[in-house]
Amino acid sequence: MIRRLIAPTLILILLCNRISIAQPQKLKGIWISSQLEMIEILHTGKDSVNYMCSRELKENFFHLFIHGDTLSYQSRYTASSTKNQVEYVDRYDLKIITSNDSILIVEPISDFSKAFFWDKPSITLRKKEYLTDRTISFEKLVYHSFFGGSAPHISLQVDSARNLYVHFRNEYGDKTMRKGTYSAVLDDDTYNKLIYQLRNAQLQALRFGNFKGADSAITTLIVYFNGKRKHLKSIAPPRVSRDLLNFIGQQLAGYPGLKPTTGTQELEWP
Asked: Which domain of life is it from (predicted)?
């Protein structure tokens, strides 16, 4: 009888172990709330870097450790008062209340996490890839990124007819950088990727924080969609907009089909 029980017991133990090992992988991703609170579960351990964002768009990076049903985001540092010999750990602990492929509900359970999330009893988040808003009907996008003064910067516009116009300003004459105006008509693949990024960027709720800083690039994004206009401007756009801004700055500004044009357009300026 004992022998008969051993095999099923071992199988059950192995299955439980597989579930516990797979759980962090299942949680892996970027999770966002309706108020743009965000937690990243990308890597774990002392060398990991994972960001959290509050509803005020305050962002910090942490080392992440997963202990059972607790996500322990930790800020580790030393201090000159102890001659940098003592490592201090501030724990921003979140208890997992429920989770599945698309939804994660957590409860702040440490003093630091409660303060970070303004004493909210719980936070409901959805995985970023499940946040696609198919109701968004794109009309036009205007983008500016510049450092001010005479430093190089980019201005571009793309519309629903797939027309792309880019103006590179390079007052210092850096030969490694483009200068002048260019235009193109986007191919289907690039245009569809743009639409995906717009629909996946929380565009309806998206906002930029009003942060101040010297010598920081200013990013301006103006999007027309569904008969509305959204204007966003900041030196520190939130990480929830990172994929969209990277796509604009790399895939659109670096679009291989861009050709020099003598025609100039007056782009909307913030």
From this structure: Bacteria
